[in-house]
Amino acid sequence: MPVLNIEVPEEICHCYQTIDILKQTICEDFVASEYQKANISIRQGAKMLGLTYEEFMVDFLGNRQISFINGTPQELEMELQQENAWLDKALGNRI
Amino acid sequence: MFQKVYIPESVFQESVLQSNVAIQKENLSKAIAEEFIIVAKSQTVYAFKRKLDFGERGVINLAFDKQADFLIIDDKKARNEAKELGFKVLNTSTLIKRAEMFNLISSYSDIIDELEKITIYLPKNPKANS
Fold it and tell me: Domain check: are B40 and B102 in the same one?
């Protein structure tokens, strides 16, 4: 696994009690961001943080109020239109 | 809305056998007992372009077997893979919205509020079907 060294401004470091807490925060924020961009799946994100599938979905994403249906608002809007068109064609007004 | 929903064994394991969410286990088990949801073993083992979770791999493999009309997948990575393979993919949010249109549920917002009480989040406000 590649190791990345990053420089963190002092003003940010001071917000964290320890470097380990800062590292964990950076790691969690990165995983959350990559999940939202669809670069990783729920299970992959869970594995990276040592969580179960449900812990990642409910506790990790949930506490950040992140939808488990990932994608940008624009992508989700486009998908919704496409999915509605498919459903209209397949179901019409049929329940 | 649908006559039958097939789920692969991998999803059954994930969402029923290994789940700690009681209401989910209970409702899925009931739907399986009523044969609305059918647990099936997929025969296809497709070589996917992306690295997918076993649940999503199972869904797409089973869709090949059953020549499914629709796939229900929420994980975007898997949605992208399935769409590239020519499948019509729906997500949970769209289905809840459609259920609201058909008066099968009181409202999309009510469901969202209930889910948020157990810290499960869905997109806030998908536009209604025009």
Answer: no
